[in-house]
Each structure stands twice: as structure tokens, then as C-alpha cells.
Amino acid sequence: MQMKKPAEVLLLGPGPSPVHPRILEALSRHTLGHLDPDFLAIMNQTSDLLRYVFETNNQVTFPVSGTGSAGMEAALVNILEPGDKAVIGVNGVFGQRMVDVASRCGAEVIEVEAQWGGPVEPDLLEKTLTAHPDVKLLGVVHAETSTGARQPLEPVVELARKHEALVLVDAVTSLGGLPVEVDRRDLDIVYSGNQKCLGAPPGLAPITFGDRALEKFRNRKSKVQSWYLDLSFLTRYWGEERFYHHTAPINMIYALFEALSIIKEEGLEERFARHLLHSSALVAGLKVLGVQPVVSDKYRLPSLIAVWIPENIEDSEVRSRLRKDYLIEIGGGLGPFKGRVWRIGMMGNGSRRENVERLLKALGEIFNQLGHKCSHEEALSEAGKVYQQQI
Amino acid sequence: MQMKKPAEVLLLGPGPSPVHPRILEALSRHTLGHLDPDFLAIMNQTSDLLRYVFETNNQVTFPVSGTGSAGMEAALVNILEPGDKAVIGVNGVFGQRMVDVASRCGAEVIEVEAQWGGPVEPDLLEKTLTAHPDVKLLGVVHAETSTGARQPLEPVVELARKHEALVLVDAVTSLGGLPVEVDRRDLDIVYSGNQKCLGAPPGLAPITFGDRALEKFRNRKSKVQSWYLDLSFLTRYWGEERFYHHTAPINMIYALFEALSIIKEEGLEERFARHLLHSSALVAGLKVLGVQPVVSDKYRLPSLIAVWIPENIEDSEVRSRLRKDYLIEIGGGLGPFKGRVWRIGMMGNGSRRENVERLLKALGEIFNQLGHKCSHEEALSEAGKVYQQQI
Fold this sequence. Notes:
By secondary structure, chain A is of the alpha/beta class.
């Protein structure tokens, strides 16, 4: 059986994002053994590069051998034990997922809900923490991939310190695209995924644990319910001991290494500015086409822009024309946003002017085909103004 | 930071095995979205190819998004609930691991121990099953990677049927290298890993669940403790519904597809015969060098040959010279075999005459350097006789 050669689809959905050719080349390098001295050096360097991107000195910083959701699970199963209390902010699918995963650890989970498209209000978190003493963990999603909302982290950390809870942050769609700043913000546990702003192929979940989290881990009374994700084994393999636990996904780590190197070459500040610039230009152009962002300017992610599907425009028709006629992927809505929202990723290597313009042009043409009159030239011109302001 | 180019080390350890250039090329193809129609077709074809290699018609057959150990965990967490009883055969590290993972599911685990290097005796399993009524799951390791022993499966299945238990089989080091025959042998749950006899890079764990196992799964009283490995979600993503669960490791699946295609082109029978031939030749040659296999002919795996390190020969000295001077990796022993045993993989694309000869020559030369007189020419000649018998 022969695999159909993958078409060169431009990935402007909620991830995976476009993978740089250098990363694909790294992925295809000769597979070394998982205890080969040269591979062990690559592991160390990968952790160093992850520390750079997370902006942390945390010793325990490595990629979990699974996708972003495995990172979420690794964070929760290592900290939560039956009977522990966790407060989790829910303003989208990934907050809900965190609740589900935490509940499966036997923890008592208190949800703090917020409207989809906005952040979780610190006031509500505060009330909840006050009403429930001895909360072990306060979890929030920094970048809600289902809504495109950014959660301000400072007030969350302040509350956690006051109530002596750990702060867990889902940075799947933020790491490498906007500041996460683990140490400066004093975040305790942060995980991400390869395939968003880091720009690597999906399959690894970078994670970092600070001292406060590690102390809670060491004081556990019960075994971690997941053998695969048990931090006591993982730190022995990723640490100096190099104790065999599982066979690391060698080639995926080559790819992550290369993706992180590219980020370091570009510089975090430059990369964050680039993500902001192109998403601003995109939003300016989309508005001309009659497409409004779901999230207000203040809380809108630069990496993932959720937009309302214009009235009388059919979701799947547009997305299938984009894919078929223009080789562009954008994402549909999840849950209550299904059929009402598109999710456009401007992540990693995908965050570029040519992609902004290609998408605006394609959407404009499709809208006109569907009888929704608009001008993509005007949209491009509005986007262009954003770029001009920049200069 | 630049990644050091991986040296072309010949992987003759316990895995990963040498990855065919076609597979590395597939790995580096353009990353598609995880819900792209072309990728969904690739997922379907991958499941079909897995059914061919597992020799099963099981609908629920797919790669778990993690390494082989994640496959083990997926098998156990989906079946075992707190209070369930499991009998597990332990004749090496991976049986022990199964016990650990099963215990973390809250199951009562009854171990049936056997000597390292041999199989678990059916008589002992029978006694245990009789002494413990209502055992839900009987788990064995088909190919113990820590000892090189093969577990005959027919008597295990017979006992399981008699005692109405599910049979769980770890086929990490057998699938694609020796017959697993899921349907003919009536195995209920079988998992494997990419990086052994399948010859793909590490990172995925093919798994298959039969109807009997699925019925037990559907009758669970509690939620699966792992959200990431919950079969109810996984079957919805890998099934027709295509319900989003996690972002599949796209490029790893390309690689697995290609590895399985290569297996299908070769044919299972031919592949099994090849594994047997080259391991027989290797063992014949090793004996001339004074290196004796740990496992008797009857139970020795063709894919992984554990051998006793000759007296007065230092384990790490030989392995580091092999790696440094000859660019060959072989594995050391685990647990009680540490420092006493080497583990030589003849798996997938590594199972070839040129590799047998390269290893015999290298080992012979190193032994002589270390004052252990032997003739690698004689070893090659003995190995050659095995090849001649074949013709």
C-alpha cells in the first residue's frame, strides 16, 4: 500500500501549525538509541532550550512523550491525590478537559465558569478559594484554543500565593507565541504542546515543574495512578541518573530541538512581536470582510483568532472550499461554538504576512462566490495599514 | 544551538531497531491537520495495515499516541477497575512493569513468577487461576525484551477461556518479527511498540482490542482513570465519527504507515523466516566466540537474543568499544541481568546477514584486544553454515 503524498496544505487552523523544512529535515535524521551518549546530550540540550522558551531555571523541564493532552494529564496526575481539592477556571473546552482529568485523579474539583471568549474573572476565583479552604491546585488555561481568549496570569498567581495553592497553567497555544514567563510570574507547573507556537510536529508535550510543585509531589501519600507519566521515573530518565523508563521518541525530540533552536535564533521578544503584528493585520483585514473576532482586543490571543462566521455563510462549505481550492486549513468551532465560529491559527512559522494575505484573498473570493459581497482588495489594504504602522 | 548530526550507529540493541530510509523519508513529509480528509484516509489505511500485521479483523486496532509502555497502560487502565483481579506472569522486567501498572488501576494483582530466561509455566498459571476465582484478566509477555524468552501463547489462552478471563499479551518485541496471530490464537488485547520488529522510530504503540475485551470495557462501572488513554474517546477519534480527542502525532503515523507497508511488501511469513534465519546464524557464530545464549533453543526469541557475558570480560568496556570503534549498539542487562547479560536485537530492518557478520567480527576483534582469544573468522564460518543450510 502506498501512502498518498500529503498535499502542501497551509495550516492556519488551531494546530498543528506549519512545520519549517529545517524541522522536517531534523525529524528524518538517523535514529539513535535512547541511551546513546550522543542522544543523552541532545536530551540535555533540549531541556536547556525548553528552559529558554519557558523562561525558567526549573531543573525539571522536559517533553512528555505524548501530545499536549498527555502534558495536561502528567501535570494533574502527579500533583492530585484522591481527596485533594482543585479549583479550575473553565472558559472553554480545555478548561473543561482539565476538570475531567482532575476528577479522574479522585480530586474534588470546583469549577469556576466564565463566558466563552473571555477570561476567568479573578474575583470569582477569589470567592471560590475563600469558600473552599485547603485548595491544593488552581488551574487555568493561558490560551484557550477553543475560544482564542488569553487569561491574564498575574492575578491568578497572586490569589494562589495568598491561598497557598499551586498554580497550574495550560500554555499549549501560548508557549513560543506570547510571554509565558514561568519564573518571573512564579508559575508552578506549566505544560504545552509541540504543534502550536513552537512549530514542531505534534507528539510531544513540553512541561516544567517548579520547586513548590516538586515538594507537593514528594509529599504524596499514594502512588501516581499513571506509570507512564509518573514524575519519579521521568525525572530519573531525564535527570543525571539516566535510569531507563520508556524509550523516548527519538526523532520527535530531534524535531523539537530544531524547533526550539529556530525560536532561540529568532529571539523570544521578536517572535512575540511577530505573532502580535500578523494577528493584528489579519483581524483588521477580516473585519473588512465582515468577519468579527469573538474576543475583545484586550484578551485576544495573537496565536489563535476565533471569529464569528458571518450570517448566511455556511461553515463547512467555506472550510471545504478553502481546503480544496486554496489548500488552506482553518478550524471549526468546538462545543457551543460549532458551526458559529472559525478558529484561525497564526502560530509559529505560520505567522507571516504572506499567509495573512493568502487567507484574506481566499476568504474574500469564497464569500463572493457564495453571494456575500465583499472586497478582498480592501481587506488587504486594511491589513497593509497595520504593517505600515509597524514600520 | 546546533544539534550534533547523529552518527550512523547500527542499532543492534533491544530497540529502537534500524529505521529504513523509506520510513525516515515518510516521517519528514508535509504535516497535515489531524482532521484533514487526506490524513483521515491515512489513519484508516494505517489501521488496515495494523490488522494485517496483528492478523486480526478487530475493528478497534490503532496506534496509541505514546511509546510501547503507553500501550501497556492503555490496555490495563481500560480493562481493570478497583477491586478487579488480574493474574500476571512475571519472568522479566516487562512482566514486573505490567504488575506495577495493573496495581495502579486499583486491581488485586496476583503474580505468577518464573525464572528469568524461561517462559511462565502454564501449570503454575492454572493453579493460580483455580485458587483465585473470578480473575478478569490474565496477562503475559509474549517476547520478554529483558531476557529474550518467548512465551507460548496457546496454553495461556486455553486457561483463560476455561477460567473466563481476558488474555492480555505484550507483543512489543514480537509483532512483525514472529507470529502473533491475534485472531487464530483468540487473544483479547494485544499491544506493541513501533521501534522493535516493526522497524519504525519510537513513539507509537499499536494496540488491538477484541469483542470480549470491548464488552468488558462497556460494562465498566467507573470512568477510566486516564483521560488520555480512555478507549471511549480513542475509538470515537479512530472510528467513523472522527470526534476530536487529541491531536494525533501526524508524522509518526506517516512513518508507521510506511513501516507497515514495507512489512506487507515483504510478507509476514517471509519476514518471520528472515528473523529466524539471522538470529540462528548469529547464535551459531556467538557460540564460537564463547558467548552463550541465555534462553534455550525452544524458547529463544528470534528478535532479541540475550547472551551471557563471558567471564573476565567487562560489560561496559565491550559495549563502549562497540559503539565508539565499530558504531554498533547492543544492549546491557536489566535488573538481575545487569553486568551479566548483553541483549542483541535482530529486529526489523536490522535482521540481515551483513549485520550478523559485522557484529561477530567486531566482537571477535574486541575480545582479542581484551585478551580473550577467539577467532571471528571461525565464528563467521559457523554463521555461514546456517546460511548454507538455508539454501
